[in-house]
């Protein structure tokens, strides 16, 4: 299904997104930029298999040094080996998308681009209505401050839309993790009030945040 979101976003052109993607994955951006026309076509079509295949044609011929990816694979192997009844496994057994390392790495590249692209677009929408929905609430592992494989109970954290946290790497549009499944929702004053009245479990700063915002706005 074709993507409904334009590939070029204000302040984030497609070629800049490819550059950022390559830098995130620790290889030369020129490799992707040399074939950005072909990549653009399959990305716009929303065809994941073809997009991964297109990336493979311009990636290094062998898996390249990518510390974050290597660390993720090692963590998965360590977790498996911690179970005494499990048979020994190799990296091929714990890769997410394909047993071939290069194909698996290309799959992670595509997923990161897709997630980040969506959230860059979503943030523009959120910015446009933050005067109506001034409270932004994120839930997920980034906000919990643990590594990808920790998988603790997810919690939420609410901040004002102009808080500096939204420019940090704890957000989906800046996250450097291989897996970022964090989500951000916006709240109006009424929704925030109801959230606080309901107890806002695990989000201990929410009541004070609401009080400060009300004082700033004479409410």
Structure write-up:
The chain has 219 residues and is mainly alpha-helical. It has two domains: 128 residues, no CATH class; 88 residues, no CATH class. Helix 1 crosses helix 7, helix 3 runs antiparallel to helix 4 and helix 4 crosses helix 7. The N and C termini lie far apart (46 Å). The model has no long low-confidence stretch (mean pLDDT 88).
Oligomer: single chain
Q: If you compute it from the alpha carbons, what radius of gyration comes out, rounded to the nearest whole angstrom?
A: 20 Å
Largest beta-sheet characterization = 3 strands, antiparallel
Residue stretches low in confidence (pLDDT < 50, at least 5 long) are: none
Number of helices: 10
What is the mean predicted local confidence, pLDDT?
88
Across the major sheet, the strand order is 2-1-3
């Amino acid at each position: 299904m074709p993507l409904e979101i334009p590939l070029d976003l204000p302040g984030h052109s497609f070629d800049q997104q490819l550059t950022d993607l390559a830098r995130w994955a620790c290889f030369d951006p020129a490799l992707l930029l040399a074939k950005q026309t072909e990549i653009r076509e399959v990305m716009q079509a929303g065809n994941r298999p073809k997009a991964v295949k297109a990336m493979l044609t311009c990636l290094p011929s062998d898996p390249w040094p990518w510390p974050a990816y290597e660390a993720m694979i090692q963590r998965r192997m360590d977790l498996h080996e911690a179970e005494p009844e499990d048979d020994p496994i190799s990296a091929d057994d714990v890769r997410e998308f394909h047993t071939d390392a290069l194909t698996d790495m290309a799959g992670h590249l595509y997923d990161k681009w897709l997630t980040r692209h969506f959230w860059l677009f979503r943030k523009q929408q959120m910015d446009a209505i933050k005067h109506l929905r001034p409270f932004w609430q994120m839930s997920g592992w980034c906000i919990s401050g643990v590594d990808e494989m920790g998988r603790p109970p997810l919690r939420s954290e609410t901040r004002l839309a102009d808080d500096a946290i939204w420019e940090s790497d704890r957000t989906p549009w800046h996250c450097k993790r291989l897996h970022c499944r964090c989500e951000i929702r916006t709240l109006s004053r009424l929704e925030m009030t109801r959230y606080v009245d309901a107890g806002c479990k695990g989000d201990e700063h929410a009541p004070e945040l609401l009080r400060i915002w009300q004082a700033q706005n004479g409410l």
